[in-house]
Automatic annotation (TrEMBL):
Protein name as it appears in the record: Serpin domain-containing protein
Keyword annotations: Membrane, Transmembrane, Transmembrane helix
Cross-referenced SUPFAM superfamilies: Serpins
GO cellular component: cytoplasm; extracellular space
Any single Pfam family the record assigns to this protein: Serpin
Spans annotated as Disordered: 123-149
Annotated Low complexity bias: 138-149
Organism: Spermophilus dauricus (Daurian ground squirrel)
């Protein structure tokens, strides 16, 4: 799906991006979901580890360049716990932006794709296809690491 518009181009999935996105999901998970995810490793270690990693790799004056950007996009009508929002910001440098997916699905999709494109300096485009799949589109989260050549 990601390569439909440009079949000759490469698609890049960053293990850091995927891992941090899943770790943010773990931050908000409860019950059976949290228990199953926690079987892989200790949630406290994961969150503190990402906090240290993201702080180091994004530090000014480093000899290397790795740009990361995380953001949570949540349905405007959902009541997100303040502790969840604070933890996402503290550990993953990810703010929650609430959009109206239910009433403005296409506008929300375009907004997310624009954010991803801006954060990746135009490298990532159309993260969410049109039309989005409604049941899976209630609270997308995005984590990106644009490639540096």
């Amino acid at each position: 799906m990601l390569c439909q518009d440009r079949p000759s181009q490469n698609v890049f999935f960053s293990p850091l991006s995927i891992s941090s996105a899943l770790a943010m999901v773990l931050l908000g998970a409860k019950g059976n979901t949290k228990d199953q995810m926690a079987q892989v490793s200790s949630p406290e270690d994961i969150h503190k580890g990402f906090q240290m990693l993201l702080t180091q790799v994004n530090k000014l004056g480093s000899k290397y360049l790795l740009t990361t950007a995380n953001r949570l996009f949540g349905e405007k009508t959902y009541d997100f716990l303040s502790t969840f929002k604070e933890s996402c910001l503290q550990f993953y440098h990810a703010e929650l932006e609430q959009l109206s997916f239910a009433e403005a699905t296409e506008k929300s999709r375009e907004h997310i794709n624009t954010w991803v494109s801006k954060e990746t300096k135009g490298q990532n485009y159309k993260l969410l296809p049109s039309p989005p799949t409604p049941p899976l589109f209630s609270s997308p989260l995005s984590s990106t690491s644009p490639p540096h050549c």
